[in-house]
Design goal:
Blueprint (H helix, E strand, L loop, with lengths): L56 H30 L1 H8 L7 E2 L6 H6 L10 E6 L6 H11 L3 E7 L12 E6 L6 H6 L6 E5 L6 E5 L9 H12 L8 E2 L7
Parallel strand pairs: 2-3, 2-6, 4-5
Antiparallel strand pairs: 1-7, 4-6
Protein name: Membrane protein
Keywords: Membrane, Transmembrane, Transmembrane helix
InterPro entries: LytR/CpsA/Psr_C
Length: about 250
């Protein structure tokens, strides 16, 4: 009686218990290449063996999530930039704290400031002494005649004293009492551009016009009249924004 077909080619072995051949009843001997813990189930024979790899599913999921977040962030940033470009003016207006609700009042004359300011005299109320401090002759008479045509009262006309003769470098000097600093001297100054204002210890209300080496002529009458009108116009108080609905602007 021969061996079954599945036992052909296997060396016979006797079971030490029952004394029968049991070649397939025992596990195949483990090869030295068999991974530990796998027993004889995955016996490695020849040049083929199972590959042990780490699972890649979790890594792919993590990479996909990171990439999705990056793309979403870029899209959101780009959208914000486009919104800023097309609605920049509105954002600036809102960031200004609602300035549209504030109403700016026009500058109005300040009564207290007007009370502190001394009234300016008219040209006919100012007596002007005209002196020539240059080597050129006839300048004092010509300037005095023109001032008289413009309404000023004329006093003395002649050459300057030694204190000023040939020592005035600019167009001229306006000289008067300290009380004339904000009254007669500014009015006379509208007739000669660049003239220097000085004061002395005189008591009277007369003022002196001392012509200097750079003097050529008085200011044009049109320009002098505009300067005089601007000087007589009271300076308005600085404009201040008013509050609306109890809100301070």
């Amino acid at each position: 009686m021969g061996l079954p077909a599945d036992r052909v080619g296997l060396p016979p072995s006797n079971d030490h218990l029952v004394g029968i051949a049991a070649a397939r009843d025992y596990a195949a001997p483990m090869s030295m290449l068999t991974p530990p813990g796998m027993g004889g189930k995955y016996r490695i024979t020849g040049d083929k063996y199972p590959r042990m790899r780490r699972p890649r599913g979790r890594r792919r999921i993590v990479l996909a999530a990171v990439a999705s977040l990056a793309v979403a962030g870029l899209l959101g940033w780009g959208s914000l930039q486009l919104i800023d470009v097309f609605t920049g003016d509105d954002n600036k207006a809102s960031a200004a704290g609602g300035t549209k609700d504030c109403v700016t009042q026009k500058a109005q004359p300040d009564p207290a400031r007007q009370a502190r300011q001394k009234p300016l005299p008219k040209p006919g109320q100012i007596t002007v002494n005209v002196f020539n401090a240059t080597p050129r002759s006839g300048l004092a008479k010509d300037a005095a005649d023109e001032l008289k045509k413009r309404g000023f009262a004329i006093g003395k006309v002649g050459n300057a004293t030694k204190a000023y003769d040939k020592k005035v470098r600019g167009t001229g000097i306006l000289l008067g009492a300290k009380a004339a600093t904000d009254t007669a001297l500014p009015v006379l100054g509208t007739q000669l551009a660049g003239a220097e204002k000085q004061t002395d210890t005189r008591k009277g209300g007369e003022v002196d016009l001392i012509l200097g080496s750079q003097f050529k002529d008085l200011a044009k009458k049109e320009d002098a009249d505009k300067a005089l009108a601007t000087l007589a116009k009271p300076a308005p108080a600085p404009s201040k924004p008013s509050s609306v609905d109890g809100k301070n602007c």
